[in-house]
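Reopening this ticket.

The earlier resolution said the output was attached, but the attachment link was broken on my side. Pasting everything inline this time so it's all in one place.
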Amino acid sequence: MKILCASDLHLRDDRPRCRTDNWYETTRSRLQWLIGLMNENKCPLLIAGDITDKGSNNQTLENLLLEEFGKALFPIWTINGQHDTQYHSPKWLRKSTYWVMHQAKVIEHIETKLHNNIIGDISGFSFGTPMTNGTGIAMCHRSVYPTTAQIPFFMGEHTDTIGADELLDQFDYELIVSGDVHMPFYLQHDGKTLINPGGLFRQKSDKKYTIPTVYLYEDGVVTGFEAPIVIDNVVQEYLIAEKARDSRITAFVERLSTSAEIGLSFRDNVELGFKTNKVRQVVKELVLKAMSNEL
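Inline output:
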């Protein structure tokens, strides 16, 4: 059995704040790399959810996706993640960009199970769908970490969060491909394999030095392929500005909470704010007019 595994593409029609490059050109180039890798290895591609970053996208992006995914010479089997649907709700699946791609037959959504004469059985567990046991391949979109011990404490309250070691112990699948956690890794245990590809793009500044990876699974052997990246296409400077802004807001709130002069009169408090802060006259007038119902 030979198959290429990816997840969490988060394809989007707007440029992430941390990116400095032409986002559409980067998207096209990365998809060409992915589809080219699949065609070169002459095998199907599994994508374990969150192909898109939101349910509805503009036609420019949809046309790009149809064009690039349409170059695949082998099947692309997928499940949906929460980001593939509006409001993260499965009831919007058939009104999504994801479904446009499925209807155009450039991807094939696995509702429950698909049988392929070469690959065998592939079970699909989209976001919010509980996993059941089986054989062959399973795709799931849930929070999976390398081991149970590595689950962050703040994720412990989520019932679908699990370690790869525990997931492999629970099920009999030869291969499980998981999506949701943007951390590339794989684990093999007792003749079974779990692959968590971890994302195809760096869309947050804390991922600046993370190299997007996809994995080839062939008869029990896993090979990672790192996507070509330009490190400095991701910047972190905007975080400094955000931190300074947050500090100013915190300081303002603290002044309000500690000021002995703050009273119960909203108007008095507003006028006190005018006195203690630099506020343009035109802004003062608009605020006072609004308070007097004159606007």
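Reporter confirms the inline version is readable. Residues 2-233 form a domain with the Purple Acid Phosphatase; chain A, domain 2 fold (CATH 3.60.21.10). The chain has a mean pLDDT of 90.
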